[in-house]
Amino acid sequence: MIKIKTRPGRRNRNNAEHKKTKERLAAPLLIAGKITLMAVFAVSLAITVKFIYETSITYGYFQIERIEITGNRIVSKSEIEKTLGDARGENIFEFDIRQAGKRLESLPWISSVKLHRQLPSSLVVAVTERTPVATVMAGRLWLVDEYGYLLKDFGDAEKNPFPVIYGINTSVSELKPGARIDTRLIEGGILAIQRLSGYMLFGRSALAKIDMSESGRVELRFAGSDVSVFAPKRVWTDEAERLRTVDYIIRGKEGSVESIDLTFSDKVIVKYKTTISDDKGRAHG
Fold first, then answer.
1. How far apart are CA 216 and CA 233, in angstroms?
2. Handedness of CA 177, 181, 187, 189 (dihedral sign)
3. 66-129: CATH number
């Protein structure tokens, strides 16, 4: 059987063109209709939200009844709630969490804080506290974190479990909890504390004092030892490893050691105590 293809008639062509024309004319109307529906929906939603908000305020709905505090170890919950202000009973939507966060971050021990509302009636407060790493002698003994924030007046040096950084001249006019000293003044000491964390000189002496008074190096003193260890003030590379190696080599002879110098990049200098002998041959240090 032979199939013969035929061209569409003029009427079919006219119908197709008419259909396309209708579709072109209808497209803008459909878009306008969708936009109108979206606008009506948005206005309705705004009116609904406003109604709920005004109703909650008028009739006392969504009042803060519970404050959940996490992350605090040093700062008490009562101090945090006191700093928040009269939060309980306030409408949860009207409570200014941004200002409340700023008030909390003004506390010396608090590094950062996150607040959010938990409907219907809870305020969640997550705090991050500062971590003390040393004490600094600046007029008196201050407990500080690694960023130089003064956490508290430590007072009793006899009960100080942290290394003491001294030999600095701070430019802070008024030293008080929450104030910050220039980290450049203490960074060498903080670096030594971090790199020598857990290290005991000759297996028995913990890092106790860090003298920052020299311009290019720091002097480290260890509890119960009269050996001075000199280290770089700004940048450490393998100094901690070299100190451990020298410690291992001279252990048992540390009584004759005066100092260990780690400030050279290619060597470690161990200085021994000098002795002189009197006419009877007795040695004197």
1. 6
2. negative
3. 3.10.20.310
